[in-house]
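Subgroup meeting minutes
Present: P.N., E.W., G.H.
Scribe: E.W.

1. P.N. recapped why we're keeping a running log of single-chain structure predictions: easier to compare across weeks, and new members can see raw inputs and outputs side by side.
2. G.H. added today's entry (190 aa).
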Amino acid sequence: MRHRWIGLWAGWFAAMLMCSSPAHAQTTNRDALEIFGGYSYLRDPGNALLAETANDDVYPLGWFAGAAHRIWRRVDLVGELGGQYESGVTFNEDATFSLHSFLGGGRSGFQWGPTSLFAQALTGVTYGRATAFGTTVSTTRLTLQGGAGFDYPITTRFGTRVQVDYRLMPPSGGSELTSQFRVAAGVFFR
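Output recorded in log:
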């Protein structure tokens, strides 16, 4: 099942690249401030960030938002915020889980027709919180995030974005190494 989704995404991505035209690339303004945001889906396979989330490794409700500004040739300075949420019932008691990330770093990419392909490396912190049975536990961890994606313009200033990110949280204070996988889709405005 997972391989099927990867194949569909790869096919859609290849189709977008083949349909792109080089004339549109000259009309976009990459020196302006860029604001972006949208929906994100996160998978935390080890559940090592919060032990209380045992066997619940999917955060289906999420968002991301941020800004970027060109600082040199093809290099952008990026700031990104995000939230992921999950809730469920444990022994007739509601349980809620949330992750909030505060990240910054650099992004670089190139233009292929109207499509902009990019890779980015961000670092910051992720704050995790779980509440169940009247008890709340939380943790804050250093976060390293690498990712790649593409933007496809609808107009010269507005377009869509799809990105895939891998997060790594080094061990600290007795915690284990944590890795997470995130898929995000949204819009940008330049």
